[in-house]
Amino acid sequence: LQRAYWRRQQTAFEAIQHIPAIPLLSKDISGRKYMVMPTEQAIQEIIDDAQILVVIGSYFGDCGKGKWGNEFAAYCDAVARGNSGPNTGRTGMHKGEKVSLHGIPSAVIEERNIPCFVGPETANDPISLYLEEIGLLVERHIDYGNLAFGNFHLILPSHRIMDVLGSASNSSTGVGMKEVHASMARKTAPRLDHIFNSRKGLE
């Protein structure tokens, strides 16, 4: 399995290795000046005239989306999670203690109690979401009345199992993201509505 994985990686590399680099990436910026400024000032310059702020990560993880989201949340009237799922983490501070969430926006713990939404194009395991995240908020006595859920896609036990089994050298986070996204692409991923309202189409 591991050899097959590396063969695919090698094939992909050979297919793209001669594609010319984007000119902007090779631009000489050695003569440019920059300045260090406080976070609040930097954010204010970014959001000064903005009505909507979108934090987009170009990489698969650890690129700072959560930190930017936490900083922006202090200036926003509402926060929404638009896509993906609990394979990432969002850590915020509440009364001096870290609160780590995965499917829920960390802005839910923001002191101003701003509205937070988990959108319909996200994917979540409803059991883990309830036990591990809502349970954590209850345990810390954090009011989550500002949190609303869209009709999100469900991560099933089968997604988790296939995600781990199909992952070379156990590189998966084990939460089923690869498989649930494949189900979403095939239009076969069940949604939250199937649990609470209609089970039609699940057979």
N-to-C CA distance: 32 Å
Number of distinct beta strands: 7
Shape: flat
How much of the residues is beta strand, in percent?
5-15%
Helical residues, percent: 25-40%
Sequence of secondary-structure elements: HHHEEEEEHEEHHH
- Largest beta sheet: strand ordering: 1-4-6
For the sheet with most strands, the description reads:
3 strands, parallel
Can you count the helices? 7
Gyration radius over CA: 20 Å
Low-confidence stretches: none
Summing up helix and strand content along with how strands pair, one would put the structural category as alpha/beta
Mean pLDDT, rounded to whole units?
85
Protein model, in words:
The protein is of the alpha/beta class and 203 residues long. Helix content is 34%, strand content 11%. The chain is built from seven helices and seven strands; from the N terminus they run H-H-H-E-E-E-E-E-H-E-E-H-H-H. The chain has helices spanning 2-16, 39-47, 65-73, 126-139, 157-165, 177-185, 192-196, and strands at 79-81, 90-94, 97-101, 116-118, 123-124, 147-149, 153-154. Strands 1-4-6 form a three-stranded parallel β-sheet, with no helix packed on it. A hairpin with a 2-residue loop joins strand 2 (90-94) and strand 3 (97-101). The radius of gyration is 20 Å and the shape is flat. The protein starts with a helix and ends in a 7-residue tail after the last helix. The model has no long low-confidence stretch (mean pLDDT 85).
